[in-house]
């Protein structure tokens, strides 16, 4: 039994004791969801969908489960407390290898938010240049991406030293400014923190890692049909929120100023964060959130070579587009008009 499988088994019962949140009205269906940053510019379709009443119009109440937990998110799916869990590719494949009964049903981000950043003007211009240097990790979760990135240059994680720096912008900036680290393995919010703290960043992320199902919604494969109505409503509202950013980013910015004001105390930082988040969130596929077996199958050998996963799994066995058609079934012109009207009333 793998360590992950043992952890899943041991925590499946434990998570049942966590609070489930407020009860929905009798006529509303509750969708319990867990993701790394519950309400944030990083996942703005949720905030936009709430501001424009799209979840409510679908008869859905969104209940966000506590995200600051050491319990693997997939365990919440296994025990039934979560209907949707946001997972990255490594978490998804490792959970499947551990026997978790899950399907990926919607690709939230199809461009990798993760990357390898160096200070502007650095002599480090490629992954090969990192050999023998100290590389900072924003969190230990960024180690797997660094492994995969080094692998593209024929290096392994043992060819560098790593240090976990934490998420504090001033700390990240100091590490780069003082030369404590040659590079940082992090994500879009971290580059914003560095810029705000006076550090211009160049990304040396290998091109082959830029296209990735970076964050996806996974669901328990045994309850997909049972929860179809609520799940389709949730994902349609999410898709509408995504679409608004493509046609009216000004409205999205104002919704975020009101919905997550703590991320907009610095207007410049908030705007940069939104611009990066739009690049990550707007689907590259014709249908919002559509599933890409070829991308998954191309990515897994890289993850295997880096040691991030134990075995590859054919994407066709766990990608399930059961909700995709419904998630895209809405009137684009109507959404555009609603966003415009909201902005006119709230400016």
Strand runs, count = 10
Which CATH-level-2 architecture of the largest domain?
3-Layer(aba) Sandwich
Give the H and E element order.
Answer: HEHHEHEHEEEHEHEHEEHHHHHH
Determine the number of helices (DSSP H or I, runs of at least 4 residues). 14
Oligomer: single chain
* Tally of discrete structural domains: 2
- The chain-level mean pLDDT equals 90
Strand content: 15-25%
Shape: globular
Question: Roughly what percent helix?
Answer: 40-55%
How many strands, what sense, and barrel or not for the largest sheet?
5 strands, mixed
Rg (C-alpha, Å): 20 Å
- Low-confidence sequence ranges: 6-25
Q: Regarding CATH, which class of the largest domain?
A: Alpha Beta
CATH homolog superfamily of the largest domain: Periplasmic binding protein-like II
Widest sheet, order of strands: 2-1-3-10-4
Distance between the termini: 56 Å
Q: Could you say which structural class the secondary elements and strand pairing correspond to?
A: alpha/beta
CATH topology title of the largest domain: D-Maltodextrin-Binding Protein, domain 2
């Amino acid at each position: 039994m793998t360590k992950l499988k043992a952890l899943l088994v041991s925590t499946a019962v434990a998570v049942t004791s966590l609070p489930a949140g407020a009860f929905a009205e009798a006529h509303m269906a509750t969708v319990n969801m867990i993701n790394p940053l519950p309400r944030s510019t990083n996942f703005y379709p949720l905030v936009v969908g709430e501001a424009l009443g799209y979840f409510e119009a679908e008869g859905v109440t969104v209940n966000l489960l506590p995200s600051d937990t050491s319990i693997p998110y997939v365990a919440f799916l296994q025990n039934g407390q979560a209907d949707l869990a946001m997972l990255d590719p490594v978490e998804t494949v490792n959970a499947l290898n551990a026997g978790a009964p899950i399907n990926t049903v919607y690709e939230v981000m199809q461009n990798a938010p993760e990357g390898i950043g160096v200070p502007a003007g650095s002599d480090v211009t490629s992954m090969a240049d990192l050999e023998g240097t100290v590389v900072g990790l924003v969190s230990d979760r960024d180690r797997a991406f660094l492994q995969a990135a080094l692998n593209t240059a024929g290096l392994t994680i043992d060819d560098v030293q790593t240090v976990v720096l934490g998420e504090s912008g001033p700390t990240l900036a100091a590490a780069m400014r003082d030369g404590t680290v040659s590079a940082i393995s992090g994500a879009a919010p971290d580059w914003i923190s560095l810029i705000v703290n006076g550090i211009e960043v160049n990304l040396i992320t290998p091109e082959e890692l830029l296209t990735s199902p970076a964050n996806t919604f996974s669901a328990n494969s045994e309850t997909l049909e049972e929860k179809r109505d609520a799940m389709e409503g949730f994902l349609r509202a999410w898709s509408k929120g995504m679409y608004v950013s493509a046609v009216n980013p000004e409205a999205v910015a104002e919704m975020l100023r009101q919905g997550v004001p703590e991320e907009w105390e610095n207007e410049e930082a908030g705007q940069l964060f939104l611009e990066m988040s739009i690049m990550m969130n707007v689907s590259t596929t014709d249908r919002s959130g559509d599933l890409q077996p070829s991308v998954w199958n191309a990515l897994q050998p890289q993850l295997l070579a880096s040691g991030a996963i134990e075995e590859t799994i054919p994407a066709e066995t766990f990608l399930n587009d059961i909700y995709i058609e419904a998630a895209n079934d809405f009137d684009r012109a109507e959404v555009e008009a609603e966003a415009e009207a909201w902005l006119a009333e709230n400016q």
